[in-house]
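Inverse folding, one chain.
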């Protein structure tokens, strides 16, 4: 009688179904840095707008203040365009990174995921559920990518997502105030709200960098260690 060979402690070495997220992670971090740069530019434009509208509200007149107002308005428009372009580029690369992270995480531990892989992209575009589904997907990937047996907290993920939602809410309020502003005082208030919104966006982008770097690192260490779960034995046929 032949003694069966013992099963290996881990699955086979990483194959084509496991792909390194490092390159996409670095690209995402660079683009998030670009978002921060455009937000800083927007903060500068907001401060100029607040300064000149404050003078206009105080009754300052003349060609000088008119020129400053035109200059501030031009910078506000330019910063909005630059930020929009940076956000679109970052969103595309971030979703590519997250799709790879989700695929690897499913190989690590399929039981950790509460949602199908298609939601990795779709969750961001579905109204209402986009307020919590993306955070859930990232948190599940975090849990599946953590070292075996460790307790993975979601502090960075929760902080990033909280600031992201807060920034979106304040940004909508600021946009509405800007469109409806008809006096120098109202424009001044709208610019102050926009400044707060841009500050939240900077904080959210910095925390997003932390999430990307840490989650990419978790997966890289797990892939290189070869610590993959042993495959379930095939059911015996009767």
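Residues assigned per position:
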């Amino acid at each position: 009688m032949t003694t069966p060979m013992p099963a290996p402690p881990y699955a086979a070495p990483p194959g084509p179904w496991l792909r390194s997220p490092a390159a996409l992670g670095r690209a995402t971090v660079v683009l998030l840095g670009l978002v921060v740069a455009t937000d800083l530019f927007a903060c500068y434009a907001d401060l100029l707008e607040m300064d000149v509208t404050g003078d206009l509200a105080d009754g300052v007149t003349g060609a000088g203040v008119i020129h400053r107002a035109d200059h501030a308005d031009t910078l506000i428009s330019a910063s909005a365009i630059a930020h929009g372009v940076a956000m679109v580029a970052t969103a595309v690369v971030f979703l590519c990174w997250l799709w790879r992270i989700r695929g690897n995480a499913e190989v690590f531990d399929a039981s950790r995921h509460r949602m199908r892989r298609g939601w990795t992209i779709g969750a961001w575009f579905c109204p209402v559920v986009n307020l919590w589904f993306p955070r859930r997907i990232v948190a599940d990937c975090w849990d599946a990518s953590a070292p075996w047996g460790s307790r993975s907290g979601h502090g960075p993920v929760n902080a990033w997502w909280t600031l992201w939602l807060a920034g979106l809410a304040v940004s909508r309020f600021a946009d509405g105030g800007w469109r409806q502003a008809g006096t120098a005082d109202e424009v001044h208030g709208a610019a102050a709200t926009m400044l707060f919104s841009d500050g939240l966006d900077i904080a959210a982008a910095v925390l997003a960098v932390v999430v990307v770097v840490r989650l990419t690192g978790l997966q890289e260490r797990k892939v290189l260690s070869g610590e993959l779960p042993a495959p379930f034995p095939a059911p015996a046929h009767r």
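The CA atoms of residues 65 and 76 lie 16 Å apart. The two ends are 21 Å apart (CA to CA).
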